[in-house]
Amino acid sequence: MPGVYISYPFCRQKCTFCNFASEVYSRALEARYVAALRAEIQRHPWRWQPETLYLGGGTPGDIDPAVLETILALVPGYPWGEATVEAAPGSITRKKAHEWRRLGINRISLGVQTFVRAEIARTGRRHTAEIVRDEIELLRDEGITNFNIDLIAGLPGQTPESWSESLDWIERLRPPHVSVYMLEIDDDSRLGREMRRGGSRYGAPDAPSEETTVTLYEMAVERLQAAGIERYEISNFAVPGHESRHNLKYWRIEPYVGFGADSHSFDGEIRRQNAETASEYVTRTERSESPCIAESPAKPDEERFYVGLRQTAGIRLHPDDWQRFETTIRRFADQGLVEAKGDTLRLTPRGILFSNEVLQEFIGT
Hints:
Largest sheet: 9 strands, mixed
Number of helices: 14
Order of helices and strands: EHEHEHEHHEHEHHEEHEEEHEHEHEEHH
Strand content: 15-25%
């Protein structure tokens, strides 16, 4: 069954590395956003029961539980098979965890990024490793045992030694799921812009080299594997049976519907995108206009390669795939970036490191 994604692009502070469509908006806009979000969900023609629910952002973990209840009450399917809320360490209380559980939330994604105090300070975050430990214990006490920890490889000041400290904490905390992202350097984040222009703010000069960042990622793969947390997607690792059911829908090209600013939807044929900013989304909704600003037909053949190959299991090749992509597949196989066994195609460990370049080749081929 399809999944539901709800966007909540509000944060207490904008982290230096963040390149998402989130900001520190006014309380007035936040209240209007909740009203617009409720209106969009109410107007949706529910013809199915959602299997998964995911609240991302921003920091939806900061939503007052009473307000969250008014939003979730509009989504059918309770209790959902998997219902995730993204939360910032340092913001979880026992009362909030208890209310999450009551509302059907059974999975939390914690944006830890690093457990090293000096690295945390440079990102703009305010937690400590001990706070993360205490909040995970609290979640477990309240019956929420399924959680994810986000880590970023490539943050300013990061070294193999400090990264090993973060991985030590992962082994102590025993999360069922870990996401490891390599820092994206682009103009959509303050840190990325500073690094691209050779500036000195946000610790930009101390960011590790691309080669070192790759080394950190490979360290994580090895350490997580040894801890029984297996890679099932380029950036995602899980104890078997704890893979993100919602995110697998994206990589398997299954239907989902998005609500809120910059959310996306896919009904199996058409892809749609909502207005990118919270203010534009609110304005369009208050005018009784559709929040959707773009839609396009899906391209299942290309998309199956582009998102499907992100999974460690790879994709199953059809006879038509060979006819269309044979030259590309054989070239990458000769370079040691993909391997084809029987009717299965997957990235090699080396291919994962060059995944952006490999996957891009299947678009428009």
